[in-house]
Write a structure and sequence with these properties.
Layout: H1 2-62, E1 82-84, E2 88-91, E3 100-109, H2 115-120, H3 122-134, H4 138-141, H5 144-159, E4 167-177
Antiparallel strand pairs: 1-3, 2-3, 3-4
Helix pairs in contact: 3-5
Length: 178
């Protein structure tokens, strides 16, 4: 009888140790998952600050050139005149080459005085947009953040060639990827 009691006590001790080991392993797993999530969050926010810092430098250099902003404005209460471009159909950067983008873009001008310059430079502007879009992958432009970054990049590049005014914002009025 004493042997049976000892066997039961040793089984209980082994079972209790097994439960403790499982709890410790789950705790370590939970901590490592939280660490990975924290690292992902901190690395993505540092990428955003790098992206936000770069246009600030561009703004400083461009302020010497007629105070032309290189970052989009978001003043939806005072939307400027729009300049519509013909639709774009092009290939996205891809290993297989099977991703196509069809989009229509409208450019928001700071004033109506910019329209004659845009009419003259429409071929250059379309070339800038085509080169920028074809350098992007589906993954880069499929998210909302990706589209916002693309808009910022387009505004900066287009404003570099303009002298009579500047583009305040870029609007995608049609955006289909297949």
């Amino acid at each position: 009888m004493d042997e049976e009691l000892e066997n039961e006590e040793s089984k209980k001790k082994k079972g209790g140790m097994l439960v403790i080991i499982i709890v410790i392993l789950l705790f370590v797993l939970l901590l490592s998952i939280m660490g990975v999530i924290a690292w992902l969050i901190s690395s993505s926010s540092s990428d955003e600050t790098k992206i936000k810092e770069a246009p600030k430098e561009e703004v400083k250099t461009s302020k010497t050139k007629n105070s032309i902003p290189t970052q989009r404005g978001s003043d939806y209460a005072n939307i400027g005149p729009m300049y519509s471009l013909d639709p774009f159909t092009l290939n996205l950067l891809s290993d297989s080459g099977s991703r196509y983008l069809k989009c229509t873009i409208d450019l928001e001008q700071n004033s109506e005085l910019l329209k004659p310059e845009l009419d003259k430079k429409v071929a250059v502007i379309r070339d800038i947009i085509i080169r920028t879009l074809t350098s992007k992958t589906f993954e880069e432009i499929s998210t909302q953040k990706g589209k916002e970054r693309l808009k910022d990049e387009l505004v900066g590049k287009i404003n570099e060639i303009l002298t009579d005014g500047f583009i305040k914002n870029v609007y995608f009025t049609d955006f289909v990827v297949s």
